[in-house]
Amino acid sequence: MSHMLSGTLNGQFLKMLVAMSRSKRVLEIGSYTGYTAVSMLEALPDSGELVCVDDFSDESPAEQIFDQVIAQHPKHKLVTVYKKGALAAFPDLIADVTANKAPPFDFVFIDADKQEQIDYVSTLLAPENKLLSEHASVVVDNTLWYSKVLPRLPGTKRHDKTTKCIDRFNKFVVADHRVDVVMLNVRDGLTIMRRR
Q1: pLDDT tens-digit profile, the chain (196 residues)
Q2: How far is CA 24 from CA 6, 133, 193, in A?
Q3: What is the pTM of this model?
């Protein structure tokens, strides 16, 4: 379980990004124990909202910790939780934004199913979905994947399914002209995208 946790550096970095961008509405796809959720929540204004999406499949201990951590946080009323997969939650999120029941997201953090990351970003960037504000940022975790996506690294196995998915995702976002992209070697790799 501990190998799946985001560290203090990631948490503080996300908190800083949310604060610097003055984001008011944040989406987290993949919440696990709630550590990154709480980090970003601390940077939100009292009028803000954090939407957490996670189906917690095969993660019942993490779900219990998440529920407890969020419930005990002073800003817990700013948190909306969808206990379902992101692709299942997107129609609800899109419906709220297009019906003007909620504003678009200013900041998105993705740390979920690596096989669906291209679908997540494609859905977020599709202009007809109106999910992102004009200058929104999207941050994706684990894009270095234990350095397995790096070319010509001696002794590195690049043939497992997850590595191939992340490699495909990295190439996808670099080729997407709708966003500016930078990958940072923070912990297991953080990719930051900002709408042009």
Answers
A1: 434 445 678 899 999 999 999 999 999 999 999 999 999 999 999 999 999 999 998 778 899 999 999 999 999 999 999 999 999 999 999 999 999 999 999 999 999 999 999 999 999 999 999 999 999 999 999 998 877 777 765 665 666 888 888 999 999 999 999 999 999 988 788 999 998 8
A2: 22, 10, 18
A3: 0.91
| Token pair 């692709």 in the structure block, residue | 87
Instruction: Please tell me the distance from the alpha carbon of residue 71 to that of residue 73, in angstroms, as a whole number.
Output: 6
Distance CA 20, CA 3 (A): 28
Separation of alpha carbons 150 and 173, rounded Å: 16
Tokens in use for 14?
């996300």
> What is residue 42's DSSP assignment?
T
Q: Which amino acid is at 174?
A: V
- The secondary structure of residue 47, as a DSSP letter, is T
Task: Indicate the residue type of 28.
Answer: E
